[in-house]
Design brief:
The chain has 156 residues and is mainly α. 43% of the residues lie in helices and 3% in strands. It contains three helices and two strands. Strands 1-2 form a two-stranded antiparallel sheet. Helix 1 packs antiparallel against helix 2 and helix 1 runs parallel beside helix 3. The radius of gyration is 26 Å and the shape is elongated. GO terms for molecular function: copper ion transmembrane transporter activity. Belongs to the copper transporter (Ctr) (TC 1.A.56) family. SLC31A subfamily. Keywords: Copper, Copper transport, Ion transport, Membrane, Transmembrane, Transmembrane helix, Transport.
Length: 156
């Protein structure tokens, strides 16, 4: 069966090969679909942190800090006084902070999707410590029956 005779210009095409040409060869990296332990992983960016233990530790600190910041942004009461506040400006500031919180939350989620056990643990630890500091009653200065702001903290 010769399909090249029915269409002009098709007879001179080379048949497909089983391997790509040399210019199209890409380095293949195994993507984990289950949790694994080890420092050889990629977190958020291609090639980062690489195989260096120091860079892996920096990546863990980075994920921890982002998770901690998400909890701070979720529970901190911005714009406490609403008597002198421009409500339109306050709405834009709250929207900007919400956008920042959601963006950071997605970064933590993408980091956890590396399926690295260490990244998962520091993400949970960052969220937990952030909640302890900002969301729980441990460090609250006022009693429960004290007057609260009319603006609630950002909820998840």
């Amino acid at each position: 069966m010769d399909h090249g005779h029915d269409m002009p210009g098709m007879a001179h095409m080379m048949p497909p090969t089983s391997s790509p040409p040399p210019m199209m060869i890409h380095h293949k990296m195994m993507m984990h679909m289950t949790f694994f332990w080890g420092k050889n992983t990629e977190v958020l960016f291609s090639g980062w942190p690489g195989t260096s233990s120091g860079m892996y530790a920096l990546a863990l600190v980075f994920v921890f800090a982002i998770a901690f910041m998400v909890e701070w942004l979720s529970h901190y009461r911005f714009l406490e006084r609403d008597d002198d506040t421009n409500h339109v400006l306050a709405g834009f500031v709250q929207t900007l902070l919400h956008c920042l919180r959601v963006g950071l939350s997605y970064l933590v989620m993408l980091a956890v999707m590396s399926f690295n056990g260490g990244v998962f643990l520091v993400a949970v630890a960052g969220h937990s410590l952030g909640f302890l500091c900002f969301g729980s009653r441990v460090f609250k200065k006022s009693p429960l029956h004290a007057k609260t702001s009319r603006l609630p903290p950002m909820s998840c």
